[in-house]
User: Fold DNA replication and repair protein RecF from Lishizhenia tianjinensis.
Amino acid sequence: MYLNKLSLVNFKNYKQAEFELSPEVNCFVGMNGAGKTNLLDAVHYLSMCKSYLNPVDRQNINFEEKFFVLQGEWYKEQKKIDIYCAVKAGSKKVFKKNKVEYEKLAQHIGLFPSVMISPYDRNLISEGSELRRKWMDGIISQFDRSFLDNLTKYIKVVDQRNAVLKQMGNFGFFNRESIDVWDDQLVRYGQMVYERRKDFISDFTPVFQKYYALISGSKEEVGFEYKSQLHNADFMELVRQAERNDLRKQYSTVGVHKDDLIFTINGHPIKKFGSQGQQKSYLTALRLAQFEWLKEQLNVVPILMLDDIFDKLDNERVQRLMELVHKHEFGQVLVTDTDKERVEQIFKAIEVPIRLFEIEKNELEEVNHE
Assistant:
């Protein structure tokens, strides 16, 4: 699978751009702020129906316009597939495959997988639990439609239950029947989400550990600690015990929406005990494991996007990553960097041909076509 052609209209800083890609390595070079990352984000949008960087669709529209359109010409199993996405302020997001609109965006998830390694990944370590849950759920959702369905329903139930709790709090009354109907669904969908997350972490951990050893060249013990209120308690019992507290706070205080994934090194949180180099290796390994996992589960080679990593990783880690590229572990690769000569030298050293684009003042120009 690869993306052959990409078209952008009013997406972020691009008024209009269209270009063809190599099925192998594509490099985009330009100054900081030129819009290199936005091109990768457009690919991510066509892959996952959302931005990698900004979840608010309206904010991805060029500030002078009221809509944006992304179009991608993909080849999968030697068949051409056209994907169309349109977002208009105040309107429903539209996604089409070969001119036929999806009934649900969930139908598209997992068909054209992609993985991005980016400086923004550090937020997975430094920020709160919601980001790590989204990362985990985003992977599972691409190959397990029932999980995505259960998760979607669970989120809606939490929202509805919170609305009922708020109404009860505002009016100073408690109605058992009104809350029971949501409690039953909260437990039913939440339990299935919990079990699937637990299984995923168990199976994913060895893959991640393999890539950490490859990238870091060290023998630290890395892993994950899945924290959930459901580990040692019955979910419904937890809900009943939290009832008074939920009424007082007017939102649901227990459930899988409170889960967290602690990233560990030698048994301790890497956020507190990992060096900067260890954290970089951890995050790179995390994304490479994600790549392999999706590849195996979907039987499709995802697009790998490397955003400004040559400037953020030391030479040793870059070399180990490039060795994987040289061994053709990946399919189509998209790379951004500020230094044209550095990119050319890196790929020349491993004898991998590239298609090189230069970006300046929101304009894209192909420099070579190897």
